[in-house]
């Protein structure tokens, strides 16, 4: 992925419809930081605190393992609105 691709992803919602990629009012988002999904927003509206604490394993074709791979993100302890990349998994 080059810098043009990275810029295109910034501010978009992970898994959102391409016709409506941006944030929606009244929703809660966490910014994904680092890794293949850097700059995307993750909609965490309605998530329970324990679900947030667990972090996520998000399917992506952009990571080390290509199609079928996952990117792992955990909330940043001092800033839970930003989730840091922890690596990729198959």
Could you walk me through the main structural features you see in this protein, from its secondary elements to its overall organization?
The protein has 90 residues and is α+β, with helices and mostly antiparallel strands. Helix content is 14%, strand content 33%. It has 2 helices and 5 strands; from the N terminus they run H-E-E-H-E-E-E. The protein has helices at 3-9, 49-54, and strands at residues 29-33, 41-43, 56-59, 70-76, 79-89. The chain has a 5-stranded mixed beta sheet with strand order 2-1-5-4-3. Strand 4 and strand 5 form a beta hairpin. The two termini are 19 Å apart. Residues 4-8 have low confidence and may be disordered.
Lay out the secondary structure.
Blueprint: H1 3-9, E1 29-33, E2 41-43, H2 49-54, E3 56-59, E4 70-76, E5 79-89
Parallel strand pairs: 1-5
Antiparallel strand pairs: 1-2, 3-4, 4-5
Strands side by side in the biggest sheet: 2-1-5-4-3
**Biggest sheet overview:** 5 strands, mixed
Unreliable stretches, pLDDT < 50, 5 or more residues? 4-8
Oligomeric status: single chain
User: Average pLDDT across residues?
Assistant: 87
Tell me, briefly, the overall form: globular
The termini sit apart by: 19 Å
Measured by DSSP, the beta-strand proportion falls in 25-35%
Treating each run of at least 4 consecutive H or I residues as one helix, how many helices?
Answer: 2
- Integer-rounded radius of gyration: 13 Å
Structural class label: alpha+beta
Number of strands: 5
Report the helical percentage. Answer: 10-25%
């Amino acid at each position: 992925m080059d810098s043009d691709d990275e810029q295109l992803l910034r501010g978009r919602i992970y898994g959102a419809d391409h016709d409506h990629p941006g944030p929606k009012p009244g929703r809660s988002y966490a910014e994904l930081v680092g890794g293949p999904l850097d700059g995307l927003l993750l909609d965490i509206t309605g998530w329970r605190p324990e679900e947030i604490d667990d972090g996520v394993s998000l399917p992506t074709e952009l990571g080390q393992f290509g199609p079928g791979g996952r990117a792992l993100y955990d909330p940043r302890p001092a800033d839970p609105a930003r989730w840091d990349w922890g690596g990729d998994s198959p």
